[in-house]
Specification:
mainly beta; about 50% strand
Length: about 140
């Protein structure tokens, strides 16, 4: 069993049929959510598939969620919020925006690699700024 913590975030699922609130769970190298009664799980957001046999990929939709991500600068931690927008279709597009100190730091459109998009955001922060915590591996 992993010592890594599990995190739970709320967000929205949208497709041609409408929108609904969802809960996203991340930790232990997995991410999961339930949409319209169907459980989806994967090693990352970009690889979400049905948990049942056959593993149909989640596609043709948008997932949107926010999560707290403090920023530490000069030894002081300040609250910040990371807004995440994931489009799953013919290709996977992920956009992260960190709302911190009255500014928005955006990753731009990236493939489905959460760590790469987060690193793009981090490079825009003031010199010496660090994220105040690690996010679960599946994020």
């Amino acid at each position: 069993m992993s010592s890594e913590s599990t995190e739970v975030w709320t967000g929205w699922y949208r497709d041609r049929s409408g929108a609904e609130a969802i809960v996203i769970t991340a930790g232990g190298g997995r991410v999961s959510t339930r949409i319209r009664g169907i459980e989806y799980t994967g090693a990352s957001f970009a690889t979400l598939c049905t948990a049942r046999e056959g593993g149909e990929a989640l596609t043709g939709c948008v997932l949107e969620w926010d999560l707290p991500l403090p920023v530490v600068l000069d030894g002081a931690a300040e609250q910040a919020t990371l807004s995440c927008l994931l489009t799953l279709g013919e290709r996977v597009d992920l956009s992260l925006t960190l709302h911190y100190a009255g500014a928005a730091f955006a990753s731009g459109i990236a493939g489905g690699d959460f760590d790469e998009a987060l690193e793009r955001v981090k490079r825009q922060l003031p010199a010496g700024a660090e994220f105040g915590r690690r996010l679960p591996q599946a994020a």
